[in-house]
Amino acid sequence: MTIKDTREEWEIQATETPFTGNKTSVRTDEVVMPDGSVVRRDYQVHPGSVAVLALDEEDRVLLINQYRHPVRHKLWEIPAGLLDVPGENPLHAAQRELYEEAHVKAEDWRVLTDVYTTPGGCDEAVRIFLARELSEADGERFAAEHEETDMEHARVPVDELVRRILAGDVHNNCLVVGVLALVAARGGDGLDALRPADAPWPARPFES
């Protein structure tokens, strides 16, 4: 048996979109099950996201602290953002988010991992990048708005973040997955063996 996710799409007899929001929507599909029965499945339709685990020369991860209204928490996270333009190159989007949220640029980019955040109820796909060789970005800082106006920044050692994750102190999906993937990659073939930044991404195909 090969342990690898495979593309498959079951028959949909009917579909509707009962809600359309600013960035996402809700879709209801009538899906034919293997036994022939038909069930309704409601899920959020999402454009996809990118996230950046930015690692500095002191082995610290760049974090931001931001209010997240659905969970009523201020969460420590890694820089991330939506793929606002269909077909957008995810690397370009990640570089933009790192600049806008942290005013930082990186010279070395790799794909750390790709995930579906909540595949039982949302089709969001996230590509998490590893960014190294960090420096302050040129030009003026991005003008923050909404939740980002209250954003804090920190740089935290990887070992400390692992302890915080396992203690249940931090909960952001991309932070948890990114840090643990980083540690696993180091313990395996090494960070230089990670996929290149322009590696194909079937979940969200993009132009070079």
UniProtKB/TrEMBL annotation:
Residues 44-178 form the Nudix hydrolase domain. Keywords: Hydrolase. InterPro entries: NUDIX_hydrolase-like_dom_sf (IPR015797), NUDIX_hydrolase_dom (IPR000086). Coiled coil: none annotated. It holds the Pfam family NUDIX. CDD domains: NUDIX_ADPRase_Rv1700. SUPFAM superfamilies: Nudix. This is NUDIX domain-containing protein. It comes from Streptomyces eurythermus.
